[in-house]
Amino acid sequence: MPEPQEPEGVIAGTGMGAAMDLAVSEGNSLEPGPGGEKPRSLWSDAWRDLRRNPVFLLSALVILFLIFISLWPSVIASGSPLKCDLGKAQQGSSAGHPFGYDGQGCDVYTRTVYGARTSVAVGVLATLGVAVLGSVLGGLAGFFGGIWDSVLSRVTDIFFAIPVVLGGLVLLSVVTSNTIWPVIGFMVLLGWPQISRIARGSVITAKQNDYVQAARALGASNSRMLLRHIAPNAVAPVIVVATIALGTYIALEATLSYLGVGLKPPSVSWGIDISAASPYVRNAPHALLWPSGALAITVLAFIMLGDAVRDALDPKLR
Predict the structure, then answer these.
(1) Distinct helix (H) and strand (E) counts, the chain
(2) Residue 23 phi/psi, 5° resolution?
(3) Hey, which residues does 84 pair with through a beta bridge?
(4) Per the CB 3.0–4.6 Å rule, which of 87, 145, 167, 301 could disulfide with 62?
(5) Could you tell me which of 264, 276, 199 has the C-alpha nearest to residue 235?
(6) Helices 164-172 and 236-258 meet at what angle, rounded to 10?
């Protein structure tokens, strides 16, 4: 008659002892270390890297300054961007007017400062719309697959075939509104397929991970798996692309306004000022250089910010 074995021996005999030891060792690795430090997540590691990145710090300072003057332009520009004096048209810099005057006698400095409000508002709102719409559609297509994924893929192919500038010339030429909303709506309409493709690929990759399969085996609902397990691990590529695209949308608004189909006077925009100053660039180059320089610095700052965020969120680049 065999002797009775202890529970530990039974577990070891079934081959589960090593698995339990591994699980215990893994669980202990998640405990705070001797110094009381908790294990860092991807986001905490990314924030630590960003704080040490001079490119991120420089671009963030420029963007914070742009946001500040967009919200409170009167702090650094006391005049009105619509107040013009034809007697001072095309004059150079003078006391109180460091950027000179444009062809209509408007203060270039004041219009450049107030133009930041329009550009930043269009870029931020368009990026939010594109990110939300593209992430929802692409995430659902990547998660459920099937006919929904096939239809969305063909729809995005159609939108990718539309040239952005040509589409803006056609769609916005029939709009008579002077507000920023038609321009934002156009950017969202043609910009969501790119974010949708990225979100779809991220969700497909994330849902194949073991923790998602374990949640599914435990009976987790689709909404819980999407919101709790997949979305937090698939959103990083969307954030990177959206940050870089924000600068692109600012440049696109200026391009459409320059061509006369974006924002229209009396709206204040860098694209409008660049278009108005182009005919007399030889006589008054300052009226063209200042808004063009502000536009270039803004776009470059957002692109640099996106590159820094990409380097911090991609572990393969560390």
Answers:
(1) 14, 0
(2) -65, -40
(3) 106
(4) 301
(5) 199
(6) 60
Angle at 313 between CA 127 and CA 63, to 5 degrees: 45
pTM of the model: 0.81
pLDDT band at 295 (very low <50, low <70, confident <90, very high): very high
CA distances (Å), 272 to each of 23, 27, 82, 254, in order? 64, 61, 13, 7
Quick one: pLDDT at residue 17? 41
66 near 120, Cβ under 8 Å?
Answer: yes
Alpha-carbon gap, residue 259 to 276, rounded angstroms: 11
Residue owning tokens 């550009």: 119
pLDDT of residue 135: 93
State the pLDDT confidence band at 298, using cuts at 50, 70 and 90. Answer: very high
- What's the mean per-residue pLDDT of the chain? 83
Name the phi and psi angles at 149, rounded to 5: -65, -40
The dihedral sign for the CA sequence 191, 114, 60, 98: positive
Residue showing tokens 């599914």: 216
**Residue 289 CA from chain centroid, whole number:** 27
pLDDT tens, residue by residue, 73-105: 999 998 889 888 888 888 888 888 899 999 889
280 contact partners, CB below 8 Å, separation of at least 6? 90, 103, 287
Distances in Å between the Cα of 158 and the Cα atoms of 126, 149, 163, 238, 309 are 20, 15, 11, 21, 30
DSSP 240-300: HHHHHHHHHHHHHHHHHHHTTSSS-TTS--HHHHHHHHGGGTTT-THHHHHHHHHHHHHHH
- Long-range residue pairs from 70-77, CB within 8 A, at least 24 positions apart, any chain: 70/116, 70/117, 70/120, 70/121, 71/117, 73/113, 73/114, 73/116, 73/117, 76/113, 77/109, 77/110, 77/113, 77/114
- pLDDT band with cut points at 50, 70 and 90 for residue 234: confident
Upper half-sphere CA count for residue 249 (Cβ side, 13 Å):
31
